[in-house]
Write a structure and sequence with these properties.
Elements lengths: L12 H9 L1 E6 L4 E3 L7 E7 L2 E6 L5 E7 L3 E3 L1 H6 L6 E4 L3 E7 H7 L4 H27 L2 H11 L1 H6 L2 H8 L3 H13 L3 E3 L5 E4 L10
Length: 211
């Protein structure tokens, strides 16, 4: 199983065994929490199956949605790398499977290897882009742009949430969300199956948030 994870495909059999010995595979159900903001980051987590949402608490106590992670990806590895508590919280948005690696032992045995450290740095670079996207969404975009971006980039999550939950995530009024979604429907920006369920979005939706 370890060998099938892209980050570790270059490892030989002995190294895979060592990595397996310091790891556990764990399944989670939708709605379960992986970690909370402020908790110690003892494990290096890799999402193998499912989806997980990352949230940040604002000073006023609101949960600000940051992004949804899909397989196969590291989760909050910056906390491990910097040896700091988790800067955000997370919960699973679908049934999922995680590889949890003892980070102290991983750092000692594997992080000095160029092929592993390169994958780690690539993932950190992606997270920086995510943070930039969060900044753009929260500071630069208007309500229509925030909603369009969320729907376009997180369609499966959007389909599972109530409108009140989406409004809370995006920090917009429920009435604003309802009005904007109605406008998107009127402009044929959603694609539906024969049962009226949303199955996709029109590329024109990007015009609302691409700067």
């Amino acid at each position: 199983m370890i060998k099938q994870i892209p980050f570790f495909s270059s490892l030989d059999d002995e190294s895979c065994k060592k990595l397996n010995d310091i790891s556990i595979f764990k399944k989670y159900k939708k709605g379960e929490v992986l970690f909370l903001e402020g908790e110690e980051s003892k494990w290096l987590n890799i999402l193998l199956k499912g989806t997980i949402g990352i949230y940040k608490s604002s000073p006023k106590g609101k949960n600000v949605f940051m992004h949804e992670i899909r397989p196969i990806n590291f989760i909050a590895e910056l906390a491990n790398f910097e040896d700091i508590p988790y800067p955000a919280s997370s919960y699973f948005t679908s049934n999922s499977e995680i590889l949890r690696i003892d980070y102290v032992k991983f750092k000692e045995l594997f992080l000095s290897r160029p092929e592993i450290s390169l994958e780690f740095l690539k993932s950190l670079a992606k997270k920086l882009k995510v943070m930039n996207d969060v900044f753009v969404r929260e500071i630069v975009l208007d309500a229509d742009g925030k909603i369009a971006k969320f729907v376009y980039e997180n369609l499966e999550l959007f389909k599972t949430l109530k409108q009140s939950q989406v409004a809370a995530i995006l920090n917009v009024a429920p009435e604003t969300l309802s009005r904007t979604l109605a406008k998107f429907r009127q402009d044929n920006l959603f694609k539906y199956d024969k049962n009226g369920e949303i199955i996709g979005v029109d590329e024109r939706l990007k015009e609302f948030f691409v700067i």
